[in-house]
Design brief:
Layout: H1 2-15, E1 29-36, E2 39-45, H2 51-62, E3 67-68, E4 75-76, E5 84-85, E6 88-90, E7 94-97, E8 127-130, E9 143-146, E10 159-165, H3 167-174, E11 178-179, E12 182-183, E13 188-197
Antiparallel strand pairs: 1-2, 1-13, 2-10, 3-4, 5-13, 6-7, 7-9, 8-9, 8-10, 11-12
Length: 204
């Protein structure tokens, strides 16, 4: 088990692009493409390692997983993330989205359990992770992307993906003006598209 995750960590390190490099062709895998008002962010999703989080995020993005509509208070099936905002920005740390109300307090109607793995740590920027309310197993709809390494977050949030292109967009959003962690003019997340490159892996 130790050798497996040690190798996994080494592969992840090699896969992370250097800031400012031209994006390379995507390898086989599952990706989330975030079209924002500041540009495009593409993240590889760790579907083999954090199955629950990836399945939840993909279902919400595509509208196949029901979530609680804040206006009707009924469970609905439609894409959640389109035309929402990055409602919370902690300078030099992360940008957070996934709340259709734009205030950060929405309960999406369900929670999922945490998925912590030794090979997945907040040791670099571009980590895509599940937000929570500071208690175990309270992730759901909201997510965040890190601006840089934040080691103190290890084993506090489930990492389920890694930015492979567009980290400069994350950096730009993270530097927008605001008061505390509330952006003055929140950046819009126009769409989240799920894209597969190559065949789907066999997941047991």
């Amino acid at each position: 088990m130790i050798c497996r995750f040690g190798l996994f960590a080494a592969v992840l390190l090699l896969a992370v692009p250097v800031f400012g490099e031209e994006p390379k062709p995507l390898k086989n895998g599952l990706y989330a493409v975030f079209e924002t008002s500041e540009g495009t962010i593409t993240a590889e999703l760790y579907e083999k390692y954090t199955k629950i989080s990836v399945k939840t995020f993909v279902g919400l993005a595509q509208g196949t997983l029901p979530w609680l509509d804040p206006k009707t208070r009924k469970m609905v099936r439609r894409p959640l993330y389109n035309n929402t905002t990055f409602h919370r920005v902690v300078k030099y740390e992360m940008i957070q989205g996934g709340d259709p109300t734009g205030v950060g307090t929405h309960n999406c109607g369900f929670t999922i359990r945490d998925e912590y793995l030794p090979g997945l740590r907040f040791d670099r920027g571009g980590r895509l992770a599940m937000a929570n309310i500071g208690k175990p197993d309270t992730g759901g709809c909201q997510f965040f992307i890190t601006d840089q390494a934040i080691p103190r977050w290890d084993n506090n949030y489930t990492i389920f993906g890694q930015v492979v292109s567009g980290q400069e967009v994350v950096h730009t959003i993270n530097r927008k003006p605001g008061e505390g962690d509330k952006p003055t003019n929140p950046v819009v997340l126009k769409t989240v598209t799920i894209q597969r490159v190559g065949p789907a892996p066999v997941i047991k």
